[in-house]
Write a structure and sequence with these properties.
InterPro entries: Ankyrin_rpt, Ankyrin_rpt-contain_sf. By secondary structure, the protein is an all-alpha fold. The protein has a domain of 163 residues. Helix content is 55%, strand content 1%. It has 24 helices and 2 strands. A two-stranded antiparallel ribbon has the order 1-2.
């Protein structure tokens, strides 16, 4: 069967930097996909043969607007009677058949179609690859990523490299969308290698970088990715970008460290602390919480949580005496949220209350929130308390 090379996409490049971006992305794809799989995205069946083929054309025509059996039958009759009018209808549909979401046929094909479907629709209306849909501002690349249509993603990356820098309204860059969709490790890795700078770019909706989203969305989906997985895949020359990502606050003032501590901290939290400066451990969110405050809100103790808390207080002991906007220390937060005695012991090891008012507040919190006998014993052992300071 005859094949031909997809027409060069050079008319999508408006400057030399975008051309070099394409070269970088092609090198990344060739390296991670292998020469044979990469070459498969460079060739295609001529679109006229696709649309006239019994095997392929039903899917393509569905994306162009023939969604019912009767519409499909009419188009088959039109092709038999007048191929020229049939080709004209296909071109017109690819350009003007926009649905209620403002999506072109190329957007719809990118979600659920094959590479052959997407190539065919793209040749009918090439400019659609640069068109965001009206409501969510998704490019076809966003649509393919959000649907985990991996092979189409690789094709679109070679066809329109600038899409890596395009923002939509909700998720942000394609890398944000890939994290939210829990795409495969290979796909996320390729997106990161194509545009490492995306790691430090906040999205438009919540000001969150991909590093925030890893911990906000991946844990309940049982993703095995963690800080170390991302650190290992950032090119060495882009380590500065990694540091920027770890120090970027979201719209609520939270760093990735806050998000990490709010969920089950990973065993590689020490890697996060290694790449973060002490300023990150002192950074407060909108409530005045440091990462240590957030960790102390957990009511259940796990080895990884204790490891995380110990790593923070050893790296930055000053965090134990930092107050939130209500004047609460991490120790107060731990008592208020019923933290286990292991957490209380770690905090008391680095901070002992030294004045009467602080001791009184600790006992009030312990009594109010029904602290365990073991926790009360720890408080008594750490600082003998006079009877008048115990709440009546």
């Amino acid at each position: 069967m005859a094949t031909h090379i997809l027409p060069a996409m050079s008319y999508y490049h408006d400057d030399e930097s975008s051309f070099s971006q394409q070269q970088r992305q092609e090198d990344v794809l060739r390296r991670y996909l292998g020469p044979q799989e990469f070459a498969s995205f460079q060739y295609q069946i001529p679109w006229r043969k696709v649309l006239s083929s019994e095997h392929h054309n039903e899917g393509v025509l569905r994306y162009l607007g023939a969604t019912t059996a009767s519409q499909y039958a009419k188009l088959r009759k039109l092709y038999s009677a007048s191929p020229k009018e049939f080709w004209a209808w296909c071109r017109h549909a690819a350009q003007y058949n926009v649905d209620e979401w403002g999506e072109y046929p190329l957007h719809r094909a990118s979600r659920h179609g094959s590479v052959v479907d997407v190539r065919t629709v793209l040749e009918l209306y090439p400019s659609a690859i640069t068109q965001p849909c009206r409501q969510l501002q998704n490019l076809p690349l966003h649509c393919a990523i959000l649907s985990n249509n991996e092979s189409v993603v690789y094709f679109l990356l070679t066809a329109y490299p600038a899409a890596m820098h395009a923002m939509n309204i909700q998720q942000g860059l394609p890398l944000h969308a890939a994290v939210l969709s829990c795409c495969s490790d290979r796909l996320v890795n390729i997106l990161l290698q194509c545009y490492p700078g995306a790691l430090a770019v906040p999205n438009l909706s919540h000001g969150q970088t991909p590093m925030h989203l890893i911990y906000q969305h991946s844990f309940f989906r049982r993703s095995h990715r963690n800080i170390q997985w991302w650190i290992d895949r950032v090119p060495r020359e882009d380590n500065e970008l990694l540091e920027q990502a770890l120090h970027h606050p979201d719209a609520k003032g939270r760093l990735p460290a806050h998000i990490c501590m709010a969920h089950e901290p990973t065993l590689t939290v020490r890697s996060l602390l290694f790449y973060s400066s002490l300023d990150a451990l002192a950074c407060t969110d909108a409530q005045g919480y440091t990462p240590l405050h957030v960790a102390c809100r957990q009511s259940s103790s796990t080895p990884t949580l204790l490891d995380a808390i110990q790593a923070i207080v050893k790296a930055y002991p000053q965090a134990t005496v930092m107050s939130d906007h209500d004047g609460n220390l991490p120790l107060h937060v731990a008592l208020r949220h019923g933290a286990p005695e292991e957490v209380i012991a770690v905090l008391l090891r680095y901070h002992r209350p030294t004045f009467h008012g602080s001791r009184t507040k600790l006992w009030e919190l312990a009594a109010m929130h029904h602290a365990s006998v073991a926790t009360l014993f720890l408080l008594l052992r750490s600082e003998p308390v006079i009877v008048s300071s115990f709440p009546r």
